[in-house]
Amino acid sequence: MAVMTSSARRPLLNRRLAEFGTTIFAEMSALALSTGSINLGQGFPDTDGPEEIREAAVRALRDGRGNQYPPGPGVPELRTAITAHQERRYGLTFDPDTEVLVTAGATEAIAAALLALLEPGDEVIALEPYYDSYAACIAMAGGTRVPVTLRPHEETHDGVVHRRFRLDLDELRDAVTDNTRLLLINTPHNPTGTVLTREELTAIAELAVERDLLVITDEVYEHLVFDEAEHIPLATLPGMRGRTVTIGSAGKSFSFTGWKVGWVTAAPDLVAAVRSAKQFLTYVASGPFQYAVAEALALPDTYFEAFRADMRAKRDLLGAGLAEAGFTVFRPAGTYFITTDIRPLGESDGFAFCRALPERAGVVAIPNAVFYDHRDVGAPFVRFAFCKQTLVLEEAVKRLKTLAG
Q1: DSSP string over 217-230
Q2: Could you identify which of 32, 99, 271, 332 might form a hypothetical disulfide with 94, taking C-beta atoms 3.0 to 4.6 angstroms apart as the criterion?
Q3: Are the CB atoms for 381 and 322 separated by under 8 Å?
C-alpha cells in the first residue's frame, strides 16, 4: 500500500520517478553478498588502478590540494589534461577555460546535461537497451524518452559466426519528430558491447544536422575497444563540434570508480548551460582526485594498450566459458560487459534466471530487460561483467559450466 501524506493525499515520491524503484544493481549485489556468489553483475573492477595515480591522490591530500572546494568548472590542471587528451587522441581542440566541465562522475554529467538542455515535453531518442540512469534523468528533466532498439544480428565470415547488436538507421530516422530535442548516444555501448561504426555515426551526424538536433554522447568506455573496432568521437564528424556534448569518465579508464570524476567537453554555450544545472547538483566534488586524474590522463600510450589487452584477455576467457556453459554469446567489441542469450539453456525470462543463478551456480549477472522500455525484447538477454581478476573469472567459468550439466 502506498504511503500517503495526510494533506495532499498523494504518494510521497515525485510521479516522474514513480516507475524507478531500487536499482537492479543494488538488488543483485545484495544477492551476491547473501549467497556468497561471484558478482559479475555490477561493472566495477575488483582491483585498483595504477599505483602511481593512487599515490598522486595521496600527494594531493597531503599537499592540501583539493581539500577545500575546488573551482566550479574543475581544477585547471585537470581541465588542461582533458583538452590535451582529446587533442592527442582524436585531434579535437577545446579551450580548457570555456569548453570543459568536471563533474561527479559521468552519471552527474548525464543528469546535468539533460536537466540543462530539456524542457518538459521534449523528446529524447536513446539507444535501447540503455544505462538505467538515462531514463531516470530524462524523467527528472520532464522529457519523454523515445527508444530506438539495437537488435541482434548474425553474420558468417570465413566460416566464423559473428554476433553483434546493430542500429537500424531507418528506425532512428523515423523516430525523429518535431518534438525531438536531442539524441542520447552511447558508444562503446553498455550493455551490448557494440561500438558504433563510422557509417552509423556519420548517419547519426547527418540526421542531427538535418533536423537541428543536439546530441549527448556517453563515451566513458572510449579506451576499451577491441579487435578491429575503432572509437570515433561523434564531435569529430562534420557539423557536430558545436552541437555535441561529449561525456568522459576516469572511473572506467583508470579503475578508480569510487573517485567519481567525470567530465563534459563541448562548445562554450553548451558547457555554460550544463554548468548552470551542475552547480545546483553537487556544486563541486572529488577535489584531490581531480589532481590525480590529471596525471592519469597524461599516462603514456603503453598504459592504455596494456589496459585494453588485459580486458581483451578477460573478455575471451569469460566469453569462451559462457559459450561452453550453453549461452549464446555476443562477443563485445567494446566495454567490459558481455551480453548473452539464455534461450539455448531452455530459459526465456532474464529476471527469473538472474534471481535463481546465485543458488544454481554461485554467480550473479544482470537481466538486460532492465535497460529496455520494451521489456519483452530484452527478456532473454543477460549481462556479465568481466572487469574482475583472472582467478575470479576462472572460478566463475567453472561454476557456470554446471549449467550445461
Answers
A1: EE-TTTT-B-TT--
A2: 99
A3: no
